[in-house]
Queue: 2 jobs
Job 1
Amino acid sequence: MPAVNRTRRRQIHNTPSELGSAFWATPSLCGLRNIGNTCFMNSVIQCLSHTTELTRFLRAHHTSTRTATSKDQQILHEFAKLIQEMWTTNVHSVTPMELKRAFSTKHRMYSDYNQQDAQEFLRFFLDSLHSALNSGVKGETLNIDDNLSDNKKADLTWEWYARHENSLIRDLFVGQLKSTLKCTTCGNTSVTFDPFWDLSVPLPSSSRCKLEACLDLFIREEVLDGDEMPTCSKCKTRRKCTKSFTIQRFPKYLVIHLKRFSETRWSKLSNIVEFPTADRELNMASYGANANSNVHYSLYAISNHMGSTAGGHYVAICKHPVSHKWHEFNDNSVSDAIPENCLVSSSAYILFYERA
């Protein structure tokens, strides 16, 4: 991360960080009313509400009098108002009508009251928040010497991306993937580096597996042959190649999407994925492009989808930032504390982790 961005982040977070746990002193077990098949939105909003650095920023820097000049800024404005209300003492349920209305103004597919996919909504929603806050400058072309080391290429690519896409949302949620393409004929290897907002990981065929098995499938080497053959830069013709991914840069908040639905959404996988639930239990070091033993993450929120593709329901399970107790947020209903050993289920759909 360039030095200018680190400075910017410190400026954003100094005030709320100094408040410590007092900033979160209110119980804030606040539900969200369902206003017509909006459980997908409610589940995601609860998970984002428990993303501590995002909520700190919104509570400290966005008041109800803030002027919104674009559709994205209106979404941010309404989201900040909602977060303020959700974390107000003695507020037990709020209606996210204005947020849905603002979001639907830009994303017309959400203007009706049909059930939607939570992960798709999350991507659109974060993109709108990022666009509202983005102070990046467009137009600069990326030119990198191919003779540089992979790590230097990655750094230059990230710095270029950060100048174009400069916001708190990027600071918190975006990582960098390294894609390696190798020609099976001449052995030539080429690498590219791309930002990612979440990891969509496939599920193995077994009825029960560990999250690591899904991550292994994500980074597993893939053979590109037939119609998928790319053009080798050295052979100057289409060649059979292998392609693999590793993580070059890990985000502060790692979002893992379990690909339970088929591309057409006609079927859903009900595998039980055993994911790490304890503090610092998820170790992502083995998936990194470089040796790094300090890539530990702690789970803090889950978006669950229950039911089938024909009819389903979303809930959120989140960890309170002060009490550290887990609660289920089922629209406007909030459960009492639930034990950690009850978190893993076949309903887990999106996992939210914070880097330790």
Job 2
Amino acid sequence: MSLVAAAPPSGGPIIAEVDMGADSSAPVVRATVVQASTVFYDTPATLAGYGSQLVVFPEAFVGGYPRGSNFGAAIGNRTPKGREEFRKYHAAAIDVPGPEVDRLAAMAGKYKVFLVMGVIERDGYTLYCSVLFFDAQGHYLGKHRKMMPTSVERIIWGFGDGSTIPVFDTPVGKIGAAICWENRMPLLRTAMYGKGIEIYCAPTADSRPTWPASMTHIALEGGCFVLSANQFCRRRDYPPAPEYVFAEIEEELGPDSIVCAGGSLIISPMGTVLAGPNYEGEALISADLDLGEIARAKFDFDVVGHYARPEVLSLTVTDNPVSAVSYTASSAAVKIDSSQTKKKSVPRSSAV
């Protein structure tokens, strides 16, 4: 294996990659992780120039990751300003499905890429940190909702359930995603391994130097490619104070202060870093994924196959949707037909 410099389109970043020496019997997929702030520039056209087939965006890229904000919450107290911050954050989230989802699908179809996009999803008045999946024909495939928001994230985001842990079997490989620190949850990872994941996407907000070690472990453990995308943000990428305040550290920050340093990277099933981590700025980080490397890695370690001991250790996943309210057929809603002045029984969905 040799370290080579990728030659991107004119003006693009030069990212170090590893030539995996792909053979003709195994497909090779060109993949890119986008390291950028939430403000959307002309990324789609640039990606087309890179020849990317699969593109992964960071956590909460659409809707925004509210880094540094506490939404005015303390134990036993919420402030009016914090409530207004949440109202604005709620307004910036997207409905799934909805018009923004249609626009993302159209973008995937226009540029012929499989798209993995981190969004803030609005479901009524509850928000979810989600990942949306789109195919290269411009179809929305489905979503993953973050199962366990971390720390203060839990005051603004709901919890996903087992019904949104998809792995999609696509022409470029079996694709799924886990978001940020839920990647540390062994049972969640195992559920995805059990579905045969080959391209493990890990949108994140963690730019600490310990993050690549977690990604490397997942690649080795799962025998899969790991694509982790993070934002690179400076203070100026957020609204100015007092509209937006980084709690406890606002006075220490200047407009050019880095508040998220990125660290996006791509790792092979053998634990080789193919591209990144990049801590220098906004970038498109690309690598060629030789899917034959998956079989080579699983030759001696298949975590849910020949290396498993199901008679001793096993996992059961509750993968049905969970709702706080359900209705039986006998309690169907009644709709008034004003034109005929008679009642018609209309069944109500079991999910509210």
